[in-house]
Amino acid sequence: MTTLNVVPLTTDGGAVWTVDALEGPAPEGLIGRPIAATVPGEVHTDLLAAGEIPDPFDGDNESKLAWIGRTSWRYRTKFAWTADGNTRQELVAEGLDTVATVTLNGRELGRTANQHRSYRFDVTEALIAGDNELVIEFAGPVSTAEEIRATVGDWPHTNLHPYNELRKMASNYGWDWGPDVATAGIWRPIRIESWSGVRIDTVRPLAGVDGGQGVLTTHVALAWADGEGGEASITVEVGGTTQAVTVAAGAETVELTSTIDAVDLWWPRGHGEQPLYDVTVTVDDRDEWNGRVGFRTVSLNVAPDNDGTPFALSVNDKPIYGRGANWIPDDAFVTRLTPETYRTSIQDAVDADMNLLRVWGGGIYESEAFYDVCDELGILVWQDFLFACAAYSEDEPLWSEVEAEAREAVGRLSKHASLAVWNGNNENIWGYVEWGWRVPLAGRAWGEGYYFDLLPKIVAELDPRTPYSPGSPYSYDRFIHPNDERHGTMHIWDVWNQVDYTTYRKYKPRFVSEFGFQGPPAWSTLTSVVHDAPLDPYGAQMLVHQKAFEGNLKLERGLGDHLPGWKDIDDWHWTTQLNQARAVAYGIEHFRSLFPLNTGAVVWQLNDNWPVVSWAAVDGHGIRKPLWFALKRVYAERLLTVQPREDGLVVAAHNDTDARWAGEITVRRRSTGAESTVLAQETFALEVEPRSAVLSSVPESVATPGDPHREYLEVRSGESTAYWYFVEDTALRLAGDAYTASVAPTSDGYDVTVTATALAKDLALFPDRLDAAARVDSCLITLSAGERHTFHVTGGTAPAQVGVPVLRSANDLVN
Fold first, then answer.
1. Predicted confidence band of residue 2 (pLDDT cuts 50, 70, 90)
2. Sign of dihedral through CA atoms 602, 606, 610, 611?
3. Angle of CA points 128, 114, 333, to nearest 5°
4. In the predicted structure, residue 227 carries a pLDDT above the cut 80
5. Are 774 and 794 in contact (CB under 8 A)?
């Protein structure tokens, strides 16, 4: 009896690969000329590493490199193989992007057409002792999508290319925040597996809780070599328990149940700890699988109530208020992502007090590293199936491809404790209802069969412990508009696209799963790729890095009466970043003031996949924008915010912790000028029970200004602070010399201490303008006269002094 033997065919496993252009509009001299390739990898990154192309992100290179997506490519490697006593050999390709023909020693093994699934090819007869040659040819992804459309018909979609014609990452073809860099390549590991008798095909360990005990139901799928008999012993070890069963030859599936007494429950962050239990599954001594699980239950309440339809997630029967963000692929070239980059980006969510990330349907089913980190850090994962902003054919071969990828994705990801929601699609139900699809569809199926039939059946079969939602947005009734604020999930995009951000307060959504506002990336990030001279919002290269339709016009219109127009490019950068932060914070503070009617907000978006003007809170170089710091404030477990109601101003206190919040609230009406004189003051008790909210009326004595242009409210309770302004900044009398700043070197950078002599509103320090590697610990700090704040900068050399454009405030915009 022999054990499973693996021969890696990846670059880090010792394989040597080349790639060459087969045909298409590639530059002269590149057709048929092999260059070194990295596997896993993508043709763009291979061409870049070989010096054959410039950086696709830089300047206007994106359009200059469009030929790559219309060219077919050939990956080739030679490897030695020696018989090891096993009777069966398989080529395992975890990810091929996308339409590929696989050949070993001149024998075609098969053809693929789905980036989102893996493939196994029997190579027992094709392998030879000694040197073997593996060749994988990829069709041009852009031209292939267009060819399929010409053959089977056009299904409505957003953006330029018909990405919905085949199963490939939609945003790879360009999005309103992402570059058009349709890739090809071997994007996940590839190897030869040799085995005899029986091997583990898949393991699906589903951990739950029953009466205080942890219950792990482990589903093991087995693969058997033809004609090889003999029993097999399957063993599952978890939490100090061992379960074993012996099966006869040919048994395809085995289910073992393990019980752990007094199990430690897994909780999302802010609700408890995240204990994880190692699971080991063995088949005799021939094959082994290792993973981790967390014991928890997840439920979703969408039962109609007197206000409409809630969208209320609970973990271990405890309601969870969602404080989250949408997640897109963290790099346009996803093979550059590593466990370390995933951890860094997810830590951005943790540090902003988020507890949920939504893996958006125009991206990918992420690598195990993403979900592992979410398991460890207590970040709930809302996982979209990969359909976004388009109609999809339900005909073959697409239907079978969707079923295969969905079964694999659910089977692979179901073990993760962080997985909280499976979601059928992004905006496609809404699109069918409202985006004018029905005429061009002319009665053809558009994806409904996936969202309401195929996908929920697969989830019910393979991961019944995790809730399923047909789409986002969705109202949980086929006779209600899918984006109705009173029902289920809502996307709010009239703000940004059409109306002022004060419109957020007109809505009373049950759960907001998408909303957002644009702003530019950090100055150093922007200028690393945009080289217009002079730098201008409408410069040629700037527009390459502004993908939104009429994006610059919307940035300008979005200022409304909130902030003045900019005088120069420095002001444009600061003003639009500030307005982005304010707009999103405005919405979240309103949503949280509606609790418990509102049960969560998931902002668009946490991250970027290249340097771009976008909705992201963290830019493509990993620099936290002012928006990120605003999110950290409004996503705090305990939030104070001043909100208008019909009867006047209220202080809304949302306590999203397990401890009672008790103390005093002090409301001061102050002058904006020198000394920030206290004009009126009231103090009253604050008592907020765990996981609840309270609205407290602001006394008339402080709520009524004598001069609204020169006064503001300062609200404090312990470390929580909120402000209220009676007029917009364009009408607010802010002193132009409201603060002084001093700089002091530290062991790891420097401190900038700002002391206010009048109201200093939204102070922000941008050390990356001095050194692109420098980072600051705080932003959007408001100080009353006499107060001070120290910004700590890591990296870089301390300057002698700081001022505009490194140190900014709202004051210097309105003076």
1. low
2. positive
3. 95
4. no
5. yes
Mean pLDDT, the chain, whole residue set: 97
Does pLDDT of 1 surpass 60? no
Helices (H), 295-366: 339-351
Give the pair of three-digit tokens for residue 76.
């080739």
Cβ proximity of 625 and 579 under 8 Å:
no
Q: Could you tell me where the DSSP H helices lie in 610-653?
A: 626-634
Nearest to 10 by CA among 75, 69, 98: 75
Q: Please tell me the distance from the alpha carbon of residue 44 to that of residue 30, in angstroms, as a whole number.
A: 13
Whole-angstrom distance, CA of residue 607 vs CA of residue 330: 7
E-strand spans in 537-613?
Answer: 600-603
Residue for token pair 């003999």: 230
CA distances in angstroms from 5 to 45, 83, 151, 555, listed in the order given:
30, 11, 43, 57
Return the DSSP state at 68.
G
Task: Return phi, psi of residue 429, to 5°.
Answer: -65, -45
In the chain the first and final C-alpha atoms are separated, in Å, by 82
Structure tokens at 469: 């939602």
DSSP output for 579-592: HHHHHHHHHHHHHH
Q: What is the pLDDT of residues 617-641, one digit of tens each?
A: 999 999 999 999 999 999 999 999 9
Which of 529, 525, 558 is closest to 624 using CA atoms?
Answer: 525
Helix/strand/coil (H, E, C) string of 361-381? CCCCCCCHHHHHHHHHHCCEE
* Peptide bond connecting 397 to the previous residue in cis, omega within 30 degrees of 0: yes
333-345 average pLDDT score: 98
Which residues are CB-contacts of 190 (< 8 A; sequence separation ≥ 6)?
8, 9, 10, 39, 40, 91, 92, 93, 94
**Can you read off the two tokens belonging to residue 403?**
């079923």
Neighbours of 157 (CB within 10 A): 22
Name the token pair of 62.
Answer: 């994106």
Q: Please state the φ and ψ torsions of residue 87, each to the nearest 5 degrees.
A: -100, -15
- Is pLDDT at 101 greater than 90 in this prediction? yes
Neighbours of 693 (CB within 10 A): 20
Please state whether the peptide bond connecting residue 27 to the residue before it is cis, i.e. omega within 30 degrees of 0: no
Sequence-ordered list of residues with C-beta below 8 angstroms from that of 256, at least 6 positions apart, any chain = 217, 218, 220, 234, 236, 243, 244, 245
Looking at residues 712-741, what average pLDDT do you find?
96
Q: Say how far residue 265 (Cα) sits from the centre of its chain.
A: 26
The three state secondary structure string of 136-182 is: EEECCHHHHHHHHHHHHCCCCECCCCCHHHCECCHHHECCCCCCECC
**Helix 569-593 and helix 626-634: axis angle, to 10°?**
20
- The CA-based angle 577-582-588, given to 5 degrees, is 130
Q: Which helix (H) or strand (E) covers residue 810, if one does?
A: none
As given in the structure block, the two tokens for residue 738 are 């409201």
**Could you give phi then psi for residue 516, rounded to 5 degrees?**
175, 180
Residue whose structure tokens are 């053959």: 151
Neighbours of 191 (CB within 10 A): 16
Q: What 8-state DSSP symbol labels residue 610? A: S
